[in-house]
Amino acid sequence: MRRIGPFLLEPRLTPSRPVVFGVSLAAVVAALLVGAIVFWAYGLSPWRAYAAIGRGIFGSWPSFSEVLRRAIPLVLCGVGLTLAFRARFWNIGAEGQLLAGAVAATGVALFLPAPENLRLPLMFLGGFLAGALWGLIPALLRVKLGVNDVISTLMLNYVMVYIVEWLVHGPWKGPTMRGFAYTDAFPLSARLSYLPHTRVHWLTLVVGLVLAGLVSWMLARTRLGYEVRVVGQNPEAARYAGISFIVVLSLVMVLSGGLAGLAGVGEVAGIHGRLRSPAHISMGYGYTAIIVAWLARGSPLAAVFTALLFGLIFAAGDSMKIALGLPFQITGVFNGLILFFLIGFDLLMFWRVRLGPKGKAWIGRVGS
Amino acid sequence: MVGPAPQVFPLVSMRQITKVFPGVVANERVDFAVQAGEIHALLGENGAGKTTLMNILYGLYRPDAGEIWVQGRKVEIRSPRDAIALGIGMVHQHFKLVLPHTVAENVALGLPGTPFWAPARAVAQRLRALSERYGLPVDPDRRVWELSAGEQQRVEILKALIRGAQLLILDEPTSVLTPQEAHELFKVLRNMKAKGHGIIFISHKLDEVLEVADRITVLRRGRVVGTVLPGETTKGELARMMVGREVVFQHTKTACPRGAEALRVEGLYARNDRGLWAVKGVSFCLYQGEILGIAGIAGNGQRELVEVLTGLRRAERGKIFLLGQDVTNRSPRFLSDLGCAHVPEERIRLGTVPALPVEENLILKRHHRPPFCRLSFLNLRSVRAFALRAIEGYGIMTPGPRAPAKLLSGGNIQRLILARELSGKPAVVIAAHPTYGLDVGATEQIRQLLLRQRGEGAAVLLVSEDLEEIMALSDRIAVMFRGEIMGIVPAEEACPEEIGLMMAGERGVRIKG
Prior knowledge:
The complex is a heterodimer of chains A (about 375) and B (about 525). Chain A has about 375 residues and is mostly helical. Chain A has helices at about 15-40, 45-60, 60-85, 95-110, 115-145, 150-170, 200-220, 225-235, 235-240, 245-270, 280, 285-295, 300-325, 330-350; strands at about 1-5, 5-10, 350-355. Chain A is built from 14 helices and 3 strands. In chain A, helix 2 crosses helix 13 and helix 3 (about 60-85) packs antiparallel against helix 10. The radius of gyration of chain B is 24 Å and the shape is globular. Chain B has 16 helices and 22 strands. In chain B, a hairpin with a 2-residue loop joins strand 1 and strand 2 (about 25-35).
């Protein structure tokens, strides 16, 4: 037990589900409270600002559908990241993997002579494979050469950003686009359909939900899932048990990168209808998905809900821009605040805090 | 029964000490006193509360109730600094030394009154005087990593003495020593006693407690069971006090015909993590139906040998044959599938996945084979069925099959590992320190399990620092020193002195099996 000021801290070995949920919720609430200070600093009444955001999001079905639209890439990337995090592979590269998927989908849509009804399936397949490849590279680098996964996945994001920039300014620049850095628009057979009155490309959403269920099932019920959990929880024991790291981490990153690649397919085929500058295609979905996966505590099913939460924040960013005249970058502030409080509040999951009686002001070591 | 009081005030007296951790009463109304010029042994199983009591005395914990008196004065000990100021020194089981530094630098670290510049030089002189006075020979200029465990322990004792310790607490001091080194230590302790120091000697080994102590206090489940004089008690009585029931010391080892060759090692060489040779030309044969004990002080290549045999470390030279098949540098999975079980030395770091449930820990290594896995899908029903059988059959105390393994005590973690490793009917069992740190009950059970494996025709390689265990279980005993085998002797012909000499590097008679 430790004592800090008037508080006694007791260690908690295994936090129960309500504790995990409560602590996570408290972190989000704390972030919103600090967000209120940001509004106040802008000269806005925090109460009115949140009310305006609420009206902007929940006012009508088309405006609420923006939450779903934003959540789609977050679900796909987030589910993939929970898988990687379960194996203790720090995939910071969903952004690049998403863009890789977008590039592959564009290639298929514009340049592959394929029958019209096969075009979309091939785009999804190509997007998955491209994301998988972009994820596989750091996995192999780590197992074979011991390269740090955080660094390699992060750096590959920049490589892919510049590949996309080069493509849209160079070889793939659309002749019909009059100097804009766009590719040509996709043919209709390469476009995803929307739910009525929305921009929700429902097919990608369904794919994301199904995959969330599949990955969750895989983790619990298959040999690969078991090996992922052993590798993640105790790599030494995995070695002792003869589990092959190269097989497990390669498969994990193929899936993790592939899912992010699918998200990229959804963005170009659903929203933009063309490849354009990376900042427009992704808006940092791959990075936000890290928080999505973290908040979901490694559970792919929980990632669906946390993705919705961050979809909400993105949609709120839109309505803040329109209703309050704030820059869209404010979403980054909120994302950062939530991640900050999540990591800070993590301590509360493993320590029970209560007010202690006075007169025992000491600090001891925990354990016996 | 309390010993004679040679002086009005005891050196240290702990009265009615109670300490509660969440869910556990670690100490309950414990009375414990040490006189000057006395070696007082504190005996008890793991988890009996010995270390907690001493951590309270050394200021690492505060008691929830009770008083501490030092030389007739009531004191509050809030930190080790307070304890040191009151003349209390502690030698921990795991030494707190900076390995790349010299002996003098280690002693000077944190020592009040040392000059800012060249502190070690100022200390070396005092250190030599102390060494001489107490018969603790150590060269102040040697680097600590070069020293043997026994020498490192001397450094720890000197660290306490130079800080003016009147009372010295030694936590399981013989666990890292050869029998000869232990005798040296006992001599030093008697010498210190003669100079008026009080000594608290924590142990769970009955023989050495009877040999060295003036008084013995036995703790069980946080309470004092009694305080006895060594002359008025027996090993059996002490064990009964410790465990609370009768304990069998003699393991019934039925004669077992030596079977076919199970494991053959020829001229094996391997390096340790720092790239130095740790195993140097080890050769031996292991037969079915026998236990081959590997004795030796920790750090003489046993760990590396076990790792090479289980596929976790590369053999640089030499060959390993398992059931007649050349398995040199094959993967851990290959060896385990072939029937080589491994009870690892670091049971939590290597042998379990603490965050995963007990049932999933029980299938580690066999999770990829039927009945647990078909077509890469796990069969949860057979996993559960196996877990329930294992929990029942091996007496694993767990809240349930879904409880995370980290909630289990050391003994139960070891039961879990043995249940997993032995249930596959292995041909060869490699057990590294299988009872280290376990309580008497678990130790007994695990030794019986190993003997049963032998009876069923398995070949058992038993690596242990506990010479008593090696002598009690083995058919033949090999002794390792600096990566080499000093000799292999039949257990019935071996005596502890001979083994002890080989542990210290004397080459014994090589009786090739």
